[in-house]
Amino acid sequence: MIEELLVSLTVFTLATFVGYSVITKVPPTLHTPLMSGSNAISGIVIVGALIVAVREGGMVGLVLGTLSVALATMNVVGGYLVTDRMLRMFRRSDEDRG
User: Fold this and answer.
1) Which pLDDT belongs to residue 9?
2) Which domain covers residue 70, as residue numbers?
3) Number of structural domains, the chain?
């Protein structure tokens, strides 16, 4: 049990360092496409949460599955709103007029 916890903590710590290192090296021109890709991953999380909510018996599974679906949905919607706002910043001024 302790060994599994230590392995999980080690993987989490390494993933955190690798994720931070990769994200800080992304040039600003690639941030918007990467955000769209991460929104697609959140969509996969919604599917997984729906599967857990349906398969897991009992009230706890249903509540946690529903909460997971709600939070992942907010993440997807918020991500697309931010992406849309960022893309509007790159429009030329003559496109904004009409």
Assistant:
1) 92
2) 2-90
3) 1
